C-alpha cells in the first residue's frame, strides 16, 4: 500500500473512532475506565514504576483522572505531557497535588506551572490513542507527537496504551514513523 493510501485509511479510521469516542455514553465510559484502571494497576510494570507519565484525558478518551489520583495515593510520582506551542513536541512535567490546569496548544489540559523532568527519570508511560491493534500498534490523532516522544525514550521505559474495546482492531494502518507500544489494556 502506498503512503498516500495508508494516510487516507488512517484518516478514515480516525474520523470513525473519534465520532464513537465523542458519542459514547458517559456511564459506559466511566465503567470501562474503572475496569481499565484495575487492569493497569495489577500489572507488574505499574507496580514497579516509581514515576509514571499519564495523559490527561479529553474528547472521550479513557478517563485517567481517577487513575492519577489513586496512583498518587499509592506513592507514585506523576508526570503529564506538555506540548510546546508551534512545535509538535512533548515533554514530561510533574503534576503536583491540586495543580492548576490550563488548556494547552492542542486543547489538552496541562499544568499551569511547568516543572519538566528528564525522560530518563520516567519508569512507565501511559499513552492515549484513537485506535490500536493486536500487535500493539497505535493510531494517534495525526500530529505524531507521541510517536516522536516514544522514539526518544530509553529502551527500559515501557509504554502502555489505554483503550475501549471498540478501539481495538486486528490490524491498523501503520508507517515506519509509527511507534509500537509495549502493551495495550482495554475494556
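^ C-alpha cells above, recovered residues below v
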Amino acid at each position: 500500500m502506498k503512503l498516500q493510501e495508508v494516510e487516507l485509511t488512517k484518516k478514515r479510521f480516525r474520523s470513525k473512532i473519534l465520532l464513537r469516542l465523542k458519542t459514547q455514553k458517559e456511564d459506559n465510559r466511566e465503567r470501562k475506565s474503572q475496569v481499565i484502571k484495575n487492569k493497569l494497576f495489577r500489572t507488574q510494570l505499574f507496580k514497579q514504576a516509581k514515576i509514571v507519565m499519564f495523559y490527561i484525558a479529553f474528547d472521550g478518551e479513557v478517563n485517567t483522572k481517577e487513575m492519577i489520583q489513586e496512583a498518587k495515593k499509592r506513592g507514585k510520582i506523576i508526570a503529564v505531557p506538555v506540548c510546546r506551542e508551534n512545535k509538535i513536541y512533548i515533554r514530561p512535567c510533574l503534576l503536583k497535588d491540586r495543580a492548576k490546569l490550563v488548556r494547552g496548544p492542542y486543547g489538552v489540559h496541562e499544568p499551569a506551572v511547568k516543572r519538566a523532568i528528564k525522560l530518563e527519570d520516567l519508569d512507565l508511560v501511559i499513552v492515549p490513542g484513537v485506535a490500536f491493534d493486536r500487535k500493539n500498534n497505535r493510531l494517534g490523532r495525526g500530529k505524531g507527537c507521541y510517536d516522536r516522544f516514544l522514539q526518544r525514550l530509553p529502551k527500559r521505559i515501557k509504554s502502555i496504551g489505554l483503550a475501549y474495546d471498540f478501539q481495538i482492531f486486528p490490524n491498523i494502518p501503520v508507517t515506519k514513523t509509527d511507534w509500537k507500544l509495549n502493551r495495550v489494556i482495554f475494556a
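The helical segments are 3-23, 26-42, 44-48, 65-73, 145-152.
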